[in-house]
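Hey Z.,

So I finally got round to the flavin-adenine dinucleotide thing we talked about over coffee. Here's the setup:
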Amino acid sequence: MHVAIVGSGPSGLYTADAIARLFPDAEIDIFDRLPTPYGLVRGGIAPDHQSTKAVVRAFERTLAREGTRFWGNVEIGRDLTYDELKAAYDLLIFSVGAEKDRALGIPGENFPEVYGAAAFVGWYNGHPLHHDLEPKLAGTALAVIGNGNVALDVVRVLAKTQAELGDSDICEHAARRIGAAQLTDLYLIGRRGPVEASFTPIELAELGELERCEIVVDPQAVAIDVGPEVPEKEVKVRQRNIEILRSFAARNGSAKAMRIHVLFNAAPVAILGDGSVTGLLLERTRVVDGRAELTGERFQLPVESVVAAIGYHTPALPGVPFDEKSGRFKNDDGLIEPGVYAAGWCKHGPRGVVGTNRTDAGILVKRIAEDLAAKPPAGGKPGAGAVTALLHERGVRVVDFAAWKRIDAAEIARATPPKPREKFVTSEALLAAAASESES
Ligand SMILES: Cc1cc2nc3c(=O)[nH]c(=O)nc-3n(C[C@H](O)[C@H](O)[C@H](O)COP(=O)(O)OP(=O)(O)OC[C@H]3O[C@@H](n4cnc5c(N)ncnc54)[C@H](O)[C@@H]3O)c2cc1C
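And the result:
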């Protein structure tokens, strides 16, 4: 059976692993638009969360398996079409994630100092599409809109000292710019209350351990308990978040150089400015049935940059059925159309941690096996042979697993310890590193 997987992030690689276990003879081709594998594990997860990134060791084993091939630097929709993949493979799985920022939908969002989290995080993580974002980080105050872990990542990375980031793999250009910024006040803003925040406790608690940054929480804002409306399985996490926030609120304050102000029940109304950002207009909310209701009471924050971390959507791909409303591929429990499936964030939207994709992949592959048992593939499809010819014709420089390992080795070699790696951040530099040894 010839299998194509589009996207080499966690969902693609866990799906590949599950398929290989169930169908040991399957030939699995994993495509990624970037010359590097691992999706958000490389380009999204915070650079100071190295232990989370250790999952790549398992992913590496998946990519190195006999019968599995990595096709980096091949973008589906640009280098190969949906129809070409369907013609070449018996089974096709999309696992392209959800890499576009959701818009805030408020006036002022197009000011140059307003950044989506995908772009901002991609900038400090050296994503080739975002490495040159050069966020201004102007002035002394910046707002991060969002109440999830991505928002926490952004404020934490901005608040850390160069020494605290020393053993991270933050890109040099970003470390330099963050180090030179004069930021003193970071605002972490949620439309709803502390009970609704989707932080995880470990990440929230980290904010309390920053060397140069104090965390400011209004005790009134966290004098609230988790109510019966919270789903049973989430009660413990939400309670723990409230406890952590209360412990922050009880702090006496200190003379640290920076502050993170945690603001709840504040809906962004407009980004203020005249060509560039001068402030953020917010309206107080109250939570009714889990939803934020505006109260009419408005206030302003004097910020000079804004990062919006309010969620992501999947970009549409020519020919692949797409649901505009939810911003992901149309699918029925993973099935897009016979022989074509979706996995991970492009299937169910941007939620869950890396490990969630493993569980989901197991469920999806079980379903695929049932579908295949009910209607086995007709067979006779050419698999990799067909796409090799097309990519050759189109002059696409494919980065295979060995070439990725050359990039990997070169990045590690050029880092100054304790930094684990210094990433190449442009496609050109990545392709040069991919080619280096083979051409020498
Ligand atoms: C900022 C951020 C921080 C996070 N931090 C953590 C954390 O600390 N711990 C944790 O457990 N989880 C974390 N997560 C969640 C975790 O990253 C996701 O659960 C996981 O990456 C989703 O996997 P995925 O495979 O669906 O998508 P992705 O990881 O996005 O992978 C999609 C892949 O598809 C490729 N692709 C896209 N379009 C195409 C195309 N047209 N052709 C070919 N290839 C394509 C992309 O290049 C990418 O490699 C974080 C997420 C974000 C956004």
